[in-house]
Structure formats: structure tokens, C-alpha cells
Amino acid sequence: MSGPSAVDSGSDRAAAEARNRRLWTVAIFLTMACTGAVMQIRGAVLPTLEGYFTVPEWQLGLVAPAGTVGYLLVILAVGSSAGRVDARRFIAGGAFLTAGALLAMGLSPSFPVFLGSLVVQGAAVGVFRALDRPLLSHFYPSQRGRVYNRYDATWAVGAALGPLAVVLALRAGSWRLVYGAVGLALLALAVVFRSLRSPAVESDEEPLTRADLAELIRRPEVLALLAALFFVTGVEGGLFTWLPYYAAAELPDAWAGLTLTVMLAAYIPGRFVCGALTERLGPLTLLVGVLGLLVPAFAFTFFVADGLAVLGGVVAIGLLISGVFPTMMAYATDAVPEHSGPVNALASAVSSVSVGGVPAVMGVVVGGADAATAMRLLAVPVVAALGVIVLARVAEGRRDARAASGSTAVDD
């Protein structure tokens, strides 16, 4: 009798853990969609904030870095300790704090208060983002490329809806409504996280020492990740923040407000396609092709196109650039799966610096020249990112050749 009972008990336990893992995955994906919406709301609401709070353009450029200051510090601290902290407690706490900060942003009486609440919101998101991708890495260790692209596709769904939500909130009477709505959604998800059991994972996160950190950063896969993301996420940050502003001068009013939504909607199929192709072609081979196509798409959109042709170029940019971040993350994490938390933290920190810094620089360019000039300057990091990926692919080929020759020598 004890044999079958033990088997049944083990089977029930495995089924319960699988169900809990699915619930965690769904909650993580939904929260990721909300954070995507929050990020893109910032860019879409800029023109309204300019008039509402009566602030100059250079101060508007502070919105992006304000959102990354706390995020950068928190994600480094929590991400480097991913194997030692209580994920359930930290993620639920980060979601509660994010919800509170968003509600405060919606009630802000002045622009400085809005920026201060944005700093808190960024730090709170950092708690969540430091742990969610590492959890997925250990939930699905054999499918990171596919899962990461789907995870970031849900971010794109929220991001695409964010600017649209701003349009609807303005028609309903106030930009403040959109922050209230997303804040309440995150509050509900925080309650969900609090109610779930602590997640069971299929692989473990190893503690990271200082010596391990230095060795981790020297890994060629991690170096390629950080360099490529520095350039690509800077371009994305510039587009997310200033594309609506640029579109207002290039497109009819009916289209200008939806330009960012259209670009981000293109992220969704782009990431699903990259998730499917990365396992067939290999991440670096795929990204050489993607970035090789992105360069002419970018040149056409901001150097040649005018009128509604700009919209077609923006869709192409969204399709192509969408898969770079998740595919590079999967590539580097596959090389050091036992340190997925620190890899995620380092990549997110570098990305946050670039996402926050590039729009601020562009704000100075916009104030001194115009939005078209600022957009054209983004072609430089696009080309630089392609160069990094090409070098990484060449280096990978050489490492594979050396490994093959070494294996042949041992066999002989």
C-alpha cells in the first residue's frame, strides 16, 4: 500500500508545483505588461506635461533618467543577491510599492513631485525586474530563448497599449486617469503575488562572490551582451521618449499620437518570430541578420521618408529591433545559467543607463536644433550595435573551431 501512495503523493506534489509555476509565470507576464505600459506612458504623456506643468523641453528630458536612477541601484543590489533573497516577498513588495508610486504620480500637484514619484516607481520596478527573469530562467532552463522573447512580447503588448491609454485618458478628461488605472492593476497583481506559494524551480541560482563577478564580466558572452544592449537600448529609449514628439511634426495629428503604439505593436510579432528562430539559427547569427536589416530601415525612416511613409518605416524598425534584447539575454544566460540573476542585473543596469541617458542628450539636441536631427543621430548606435554582434559572432566561430580541433586531438 505504501508504494502506490508514495507515488500518488509524489505525483500530486509535482502537479501542484507545476500549477504554481504556471500561476507565477502568468502573474509575471501580466506584471511585465503593466511595466511596459508604464514606460511608454511616459513618452506619450510628455507633450501634455509640457503644457500642464509649464516646463521647458530640457526638463522634459529628465523624465527618462528620473525613472532609471532608483531602478539602476535597486536592480544591481537585488539582482546580485538573487540566490539568497525570498523572491515571493520581494516581488510582492516591489509590486505594492510600484502601485503606490504610480498613484502618487497621478495625483502630483507639480512637476518636481511627479519626478520624485517617478524615482520611487523606478526603484520599486527594479525589485521586481531583478528577480522575474531569473525565475523564468530556472522555471524553463531548456527554453530560455523562446520564453524570454514571449516574456518581452507581453511587455510589448502593454507598451503598445500605454500610449493608446494616454489618448483615451485625455479624451476622458485628464492624463492622471491613466496612472490611476495602471496603479490599481499593479495593486491587484501585488495581492496575487502575495497569495501564491513560493516558486519551485528546475535549476538553482548559485551565490555570487566578488571573484565570480569579475570573472563573469570578463566572459565574452557577457561582454557582448553589455556592449550590444548599451547601444540598442539607447536607441529604444530615444524612440520611446521622443518619437511622438518627432511624429507631431511629420504626420497628420490623427496618426502622430498613435505612432509609438504602432511601433510597439510591431514588437509583438517580432519577438514571437525571434523566439522561434533563435533555436534554429542560433542567437548571434539571427541578430546579425536582424541588425543588418535594421540599419537601412532606420536610414529610410529618418533620412528619406516623409508623411505616412514614416509610419511604414517605424513599423519595420519595431519588427527588427524588438528581438535584440531578449535574444541577447538568452544567449548570455545560456553561457552562465547558474548566475542568471547577476547577468540580468548587469544587463538591466547598463540598459537603464542608456535608456535614461540617450533621451536626455536628445532633449538637448531637440532644444538646440530639432527632433529630426536628434532622431538621425540615433543611426550611430544602431551601426555600433551591428559591429558588436558581428565581432561576437566571429569570436564565437573561433571558439567553436578551437573546441572542435581540441576534441579531434583528444580523439586521436
Automatic annotation (TrEMBL):
<feature type="transmembrane region" description="Helical">
    <location>
        <begin position="58"/>
        <end position="78"/>
    </location>
</feature>
<keyword id="KW-0472">Membrane</keyword>
<feature type="transmembrane region" description="Helical">
    <location>
        <begin position="373"/>
        <end position="392"/>
    </location>
</feature>
<dbReference type="Pfam" id="PF07690">
    <property type="entry name" value="MFS_1"/>
</dbReference>
<keyword id="KW-0812">Transmembrane</keyword>
<dbReference type="GO" id="GO:0022857">
    <property type="term" value="F:transmembrane transporter activity"/>
</dbReference>
<feature type="domain" description="Major facilitator superfamily (MFS) profile">
    <location>
        <begin position="20"/>
        <end position="399"/>
    </location>
</feature>
<keyword id="KW-1133">Transmembrane helix</keyword>
<dbReference type="InterPro" id="IPR036259">
    <property type="entry name" value="MFS_trans_sf"/>
</dbReference>
<dbReference type="InterPro" id="IPR051788">
    <property type="entry name" value="MFS_Transporter"/>
</dbReference>
<dbReference type="InterPro" id="IPR011701">
    <property type="entry name" value="MFS"/>
</dbReference>
<protein>
    <submittedName>
        <fullName>MFS transporter</fullName>
    </submittedName>
</protein>
<feature type="transmembrane region" description="Helical">
    <location>
        <begin position="309"/>
        <end position="331"/>
    </location>
</feature>
<feature type="transmembrane region" description="Helical">
    <location>
        <begin position="255"/>
        <end position="274"/>
    </location>
</feature>
<comment type="similarity">
    <text>Belongs to the major facilitator superfamily.</text>
</comment>
<feature type="transmembrane region" description="Helical">
    <location>
        <begin position="177"/>
        <end position="196"/>
    </location>
</feature>
<keyword id="KW-0813">Transport</keyword>
<feature type="transmembrane region" description="Helical">
    <location>
        <begin position="343"/>
        <end position="367"/>
    </location>
</feature>
<feature type="transmembrane region" description="Helical">
    <location>
        <begin position="90"/>
        <end position="107"/>
    </location>
</feature>
<dbReference type="GO" id="GO:0016020">
    <property type="term" value="C:membrane"/>
</dbReference>
<feature type="transmembrane region" description="Helical">
    <location>
        <begin position="113"/>
        <end position="131"/>
    </location>
</feature>
<feature type="transmembrane region" description="Helical">
    <location>
        <begin position="281"/>
        <end position="303"/>
    </location>
</feature>
<feature type="transmembrane region" description="Helical">
    <location>
        <begin position="152"/>
        <end position="171"/>
    </location>
</feature>
<dbReference type="GO" id="GO:0012505">
    <property type="term" value="C:endomembrane system"/>
</dbReference>
<feature type="transmembrane region" description="Helical">
    <location>
        <begin position="23"/>
        <end position="46"/>
    </location>
</feature>
<feature type="transmembrane region" description="Helical">
    <location>
        <begin position="222"/>
        <end position="243"/>
    </location>
</feature>
<dbReference type="InterPro" id="IPR020846">
    <property type="entry name" value="MFS_dom"/>
</dbReference>
